[in-house]
Fold these 2 entries.
Entry 1:
Amino acid sequence: MIRRLLALLLAPLLLVGCIPVIVSERPCASNGDCPYAQYGFTDGWSNGAVDLKGFYWQPTREIVVPPGTGYAIIIHEACHAWQGWTCPGDDIYLLCWLDTPAGLAFPRMPAPWVMLDLDGNALAGDTLIEDAARTCAAYVLEPEGLRALDPARYEWAREYIR
Ligand SMILES: [Zn+2]
């Protein structure tokens, strides 16, 4: 119930921020960029080893997902869009977000944080950008779970995720 409520709360962000969500058989943005082509995602969303679940593409400010994607992945990508709003230009890695108040305040942990894989999107070796997006998605999807597991991250999310 709460999860649905929070998902509904995030939905207006998608609308207000006018983030297009492209549902496509191919992992390509509307401008023709196919950023994961080098991994072999040319005809679909799997290269046999990895199933790419979706991505946020800063140059076009859009979310691209395969057909049938659930809202958990879309919320994760919307969290990247939230990061991207603070970044001018086309930095596809969203690194400038790390210098924002939210990025600077993000509670770092010594190892890649993949404990709370609520969106099924965790990978070993995730970056701080991914870590923060996952925390953001966890806050939207399972705020009480996030608070129980990591109060510091919960407090961070409560302050910065708007
Ligand atoms: Zn991500």
Entry 2:
Amino acid sequence: MPFTHYRALKAMPTMTLALLFLFATCSFLSLFLVESVDARTDESFLKIKTDDDFSTREGALKLTKAGHVNEYRVLRGHDKKQKIISTTPDAYVSSEDLPESFTWSNVSGHNFLSKSLNQHIPQYCGSCWAHGAMSALADRIQIASGKKRMQDVNLAIQFILNCGTEVAGSCHGGSHTGAYQFVHDVGFVPYDTCLSYEACSNESIEGSCGYVTDRYKCNAINTCRTCSTFSQLGGFCAPLATFPNATVKEYGTISGEEAIMKELYARGPVAAGIDADGLRSYTKGIYTDTPSYEINHIVSIVGWGVEKKTNTKYWIVRNSWGQYWGEMGFFRIVRGKKSLGIEDEVAWATPGRWTGMKHDDFANFPCFEDGANCQEEDFLPDVKDMAAEYVDPSVKGIPFGKVHSDEKQKEKQ
Ligand SMILES: *[C@@H]1O[C@H](CO)[C@@H](O)[C@H](O)[C@H]1NC(C)=O
Ligand SMILES: *[C@@H]1O[C@H](CO)[C@@H](O)[C@H](O)[C@H]1NC(C)=O
Ligand SMILES: *[C@@H]1O[C@H](CO)[C@@H](O)[C@H](O)[C@H]1NC(C)=O
């Protein structure tokens, strides 16, 4: 069955020998694979994990009905589920304001969304909670920056895996609100151009994370780094003390169809809990089942709509399983029915300040290639003067969704 994928290759006659060789190697390797798969599904794997520091401290790992690790875990360090200062959208968005359909991927022809991600490569990692939370936050920075922004923002999820393991989570699960609390409390999350996603946290023994003690601990080089040249030429990697970053100002939770629509329309995408077991073999269309569920995965809701033919209301949701999954990394699911729990555990966050995306607004402190001029903490510029500051739309009482839709109308006139 798995070999049907290779049908195209088989058609090439010169490849036949190579394929035979590949087949032989695969069968040989699969002996080992089967063994390691057994080790993972068997109780002993979980026992090892439950004996770990992190697991006993944070409670045992749970499996979903389909036998996956439940990736939604609220860690003990996550003691503040919300931090709210501004008026929330339910106070200034009325039901009549809400359009019949709306998505941040197409506001009058403009896409505000940050790039699609894959939490599972280079190896499996249960960091959905960080992906859902940071994707929604990055979207909100792009929305607040307006259509004239000159670059996209992507936030360093690896930093949260390296430094947020007590509050936010790890490759063995975490929470969207925990990720927001962590970024709020620590005061920044770097942009991902100074720390790539590696799908590892210090307790993970998967793939290339395997058994390397302290490689993913929280320190300066695991926050933001640069590498100067090849080591044979005397090169080194060094941490940077100042770098492009964003902050979280406020965060909180909501539930229910209308509250989610208001938050989404007023301020941008939200991170939502869901039962991933219903999604594993989803391919396309509107998921309409309403089985019993448990929240074990986090995704981000970016919009909604109605399918005219069947009069079915749906959410438009971004997953973090790669663009080859579902509708180019997205899925649609029936709205207003709590399908797979999608309307129950929804989190939002607003950005505080972020390094500007225009080269001419001087927000970025320019570092040399080897970072030599970005080593000292003393020279840190005053964040207040340098970064763009978020203005909550509640100040004007006009939702961002409406503002951005109206801009286009004005351009047309
Ligand atoms: C985007 O929205 C506009 C209306 O604002 C619509 O005309 C267009 O078809 C939409 N594009 C896609 C790809 O859905
Ligand atoms: C992972 O890091 C945390 C926080 O630094 C530490 O307490 C824990 O012991 C580490 N766990 C492993 C398995 O290394
Ligand atoms: C975060 O970005 C701001 C604005 O660019 C900058 O002033 C500040 O130094 C940065 N913080 C860190 C820790 O690099």
